[in-house]
Amino acid sequence: MTASDNQYIPNGRTAIIASDGMSASASISRLGSFALTSEKPVVSVTPSKITVAVGQPVQFNANVSGNGIEDVEWSVDGMPGGTASTGRIRPDGLYTAPRTIPPLGWVSVKAVAVDDPTSSFEAQVTIFTRTDRPDGPDMPAAPDPICLDRSRGPRLLRLPRIPIEGVINLED
After folding, report:
1. Which residue among 58, 86, 95, 131 is least packed, with the fewest CB closer than 10 Å?
2. Domain that holds residue 118
3. Domain harbouring 70, CATH code
4. pTM for the full model?
5. SS3 146
6. Per the domain annotation, does 16 fall within a domain?
């Protein structure tokens, strides 16, 4: 069998593989066989949902099933490798949360199959901060309040936090 680009010639008969690498046409006659199979890769990530403290690492593992290369490329909120504000992820899947809470309180970690960029899986990472009290529980940090302003086109507005002091008695 000889090969040239995407054309294979087994025993003088021609089989052509489509440019998507997923389908083929063949005209092979007489006694003999030619098989070409390919499956669309399916990506899965563990953990698929996790809560992690600011600045702390978490290991993600990706599995790619199907034929082809089993490597993935990682991104955080659509940025390859992440950023300081969303957290960073290494090529081996080790994610380190940002030092501050992102605006929504969570980020999306995505693994994309190198063999087929249309195959991917997204995991959700909720970021929280530890309380200052040593005996206090770890609490998810509330993100800054935001609202959607549609008066001048869709855009997000960040609202200031208003400190509340004292106790409000709702039974009066």
Report:
1. 131
2. 42-128
3. 2.60.40.1080
4. 0.58
5. strand
6. yes
Instruction: Give yes or no: residues 27 and 51 share one domain.
Output: no
Rounded to an integer, what distance in angstroms lies between the CA atom of residue 14 and that of residue 36?
13
pLDDT, one tens digit per residue, over 46-100 is 999 999 999 999 999 999 988 678 899 999 999 999 999 999 999 999 999 999 9
Is the peptide bond prior to 98 cis by the omega test (within 30 degrees of 0)? no
> What does the DSSP assignment read for 24-58?
EEEE--SS----------EEEEESSEEEEETT-EE
CB of 149 closer than 8 Å to CB of 157? yes
Shared domain for 22 and 96, answered yes or no, is no
Tell me how far apart the alpha carbons of residues 76 and 88 are, in angstroms, rounded to a whole number.
Answer: 7
CA torsion sign, 57 to 83 to 49 to 147?
positive
What is the distance in angstroms between the CA of the first residue and the CA of the last residue of the chain?
89
Domain count, the chain: 2
- Cα–Cα distance, 45 to 76 (Å, whole number): 14
pLDDT score for 68: 73
Residue pointed to by tokens 């509330």: 142
The yes-or-no verdict on residue 27 having pLDDT over 90 is: no
| DSSP structural state of residue 117 | T
- The pLDDT tens digits for 118-163 are 999 999 999 998 764 445 555 544 555 555 555 555 555 555 555 5
